[in-house]
Design brief:
Helices cover 8% and strands 47% of the residues. It has three helices and 16 strands.
Length: 260
């Protein structure tokens, strides 16, 4: 008896009941904490492909984005948390964010991110919440080993132009997509993928202002880890920080360079 699965019509595994569907993915009303920092060039540069250049402010300290979000709704993956470390880089003299580290707590978001775009997602425990007068965030992997602790105190509402001037929400994202060969001996497929994530602050229904705030942000790499060496990005110096509620669209990506 022959199988009935038409392999010409499948998109993801398993072919008859895929873990995720085709993008785009839509996100709504997401609290997001972000900070642009100067970091340690020696620790950051080892995560960047050799055809990209790090962006600095003239003092040889590269810029990177710390991004932590809770997604209460996404059209393809449900709800989940996410943490990202993304240096600002130049590709063909244009600014981009390169994803060095990214963590989630949702299997569909993890698998789709790795398989479709090449987001180097790992499963972890994280939390983003408002406690007292501050926004508190943390990342653990494995549970009990705290990799990141962050705290922001909101000072005032921010303008969209402030956010965009940092490259957040206006710079395309780059991923190094690595697909191992099944025989484990041949070279993997390695590609540079570009995706244009669309991200906008929500508008308050009370006064029509943007739900976007700025203030001071403390970011600490608490414990060192051999499997997740985020601590090498430090010590850090804050450039700017934002907290707000956002809508986002994660569209399909595009391969822009083939290494192997």
């Amino acid at each position: 008896m022959k199988g009935k699965l038409n392999v010409n019509q499948v998109f993801a595994m398993p072919g008859n009941a895929p873990l995720y569907l085709k993008p785009p993915a839509y996100y709504r009303d997401c609290p997001i904490l972000m900070g642009v920092f100067k970091g340690n060039p020696d620790g950051i540069i080892e995560t960047i492909p050799d055809n990209l250049d790090l962006v600095t402010l003239g003092d040889n300290k590269p810029l990177f984005l710390y991004f932590q979000a809770y997604y209460p709704f996404s059209s393809l993956y449900g709800s989940y948390n996410e943490v990202v470390l993304a240096p600002l880089v130049l590709y063909q003299n244009q600014p981009h964010l390169f994803i060095s580290y990214i963590y989630v707590d949702n299997d569909a978001a993890l698998t789709a991110g790795r398989e479709i775009w090449g987001f180097p997602k790992k499963f972890a425990n994280m939390k983003l919440e408002i406690k007292g007068e501050s926004v508190e965030a943390s990342l653990e992997r494995p549970t009990g080993r705290k990799l990141i602790s962050a705290q922001m105190r909101i000072e005032r509402q921010a303008k969209l132009e402030e956010l965009q001037s940092t490259g957040i929400g206006s710079s395309p994202t780059l991923l190094l997509k690595i697909i191992p060969n099944p025989d484990a001996e041949s070279k993997p497929s390695i590609e540079l993928v570009k995706v244009e994530v669309k991200m906008m602050p929500r508008v308050s229904t009370s006064d029509n202002s943007l739900e976007l705030w700025t203030g001071k942000l403390l970011l600490n790499f608490v414990e060192e880890s051999l499997t997740d060496p985020l601590f090498k990005f430090g010590p850090v110096e804050l450039v700017s920080a934002y907290f707000g509620r956002f809508d986002m669209i994660l569209p399909p990506g595009k391969v822009i360079y083939k290494y192997i």
